[in-house]
């Protein structure tokens, strides 16, 4: 298959998964209560839907769904796991945008949640999305085997918590208060937590659902780590080079706030070289899965992280 054909197939699959995840999220975030729920407050639910539906590339659920698909596992289970992961991602964006954190007014081309609603509602909507994500992951519809569901819940907790995304955000905020330049080693550690952990979980969760062998799982984890790192370096570069209209959020804020980025630590050209190297490393890691051409779409996902414009 040619590179153009790979790219076309990738875009078609990315769109298809995004659409399926959108439908899944819409159903999960419906007004109807679940057993042991008393009611779903309309304003809180509206804020959750505002921050979750109708936007984003859905790259994280795409990676989860496509990794599971490598092993012939498709349908409701991976989509629910992917939707839960997207809830975690969206909750993190809601909280990151708050005045106490990054203090942003724009997300995905429209007002951030605390601007569209209010700060208290934004905080609660993030809390509810985080909690609901574990509810969905632990549900029998996600996988009939309780051992598999427990493995997903454990991996998701590790990726999103103290030693993962939340810890990475704490390091990022601490970095802004420093006056000295940030080392590349610090930036890579922070980014592997704040951004990389959920991208890595997406691949790990797909491997868990798919029943990957230990060697296949190791190769996929290598892929996920390299892809996550490439994704964040690409974000740093976009912030430095792009504009607010293209990004759908404020551009050029990193440099003015002493943000810990590889662009600041290495320079723009070296950061681009690092991004491209990581994308190649991710694609090359897939050969160790022994799954051959089936991994082409994941290899294309690595290239997408480099070429995307937002």
From TrEMBL:
<dbReference type="GO" id="GO:0004659">
    <property type="term" value="F:prenyltransferase activity"/>
</dbReference>
<dbReference type="InterPro" id="IPR053378">
    <property type="entry name" value="Prenyl_diphosphate_synthase"/>
</dbReference>
<dbReference type="Pfam" id="PF00348">
    <property type="entry name" value="polyprenyl_synt"/>
</dbReference>
<keyword id="KW-0414">Isoprene biosynthesis</keyword>
<comment type="similarity">
    <text>Belongs to the FPP/GGPP synthase family.</text>
</comment>
<dbReference type="GO" id="GO:0016114">
    <property type="term" value="P:terpenoid biosynthetic process"/>
</dbReference>
<dbReference type="InterPro" id="IPR000092">
    <property type="entry name" value="Polyprenyl_synt"/>
</dbReference>
<keyword id="KW-0460">Magnesium</keyword>
<dbReference type="GO" id="GO:0005737">
    <property type="term" value="C:cytoplasm"/>
</dbReference>
<keyword id="KW-0808">Transferase</keyword>
<keyword id="KW-0479">Metal-binding</keyword>
<dbReference type="GO" id="GO:0046872">
    <property type="term" value="F:metal ion binding"/>
</dbReference>
<dbReference type="InterPro" id="IPR033749">
    <property type="entry name" value="Polyprenyl_synt_CS"/>
</dbReference>
<dbReference type="InterPro" id="IPR008949">
    <property type="entry name" value="Isoprenoid_synthase_dom_sf"/>
</dbReference>
<protein>
    <recommendedName>
        <fullName>Probable farnesyl diphosphate synthase</fullName>
    </recommendedName>
</protein>
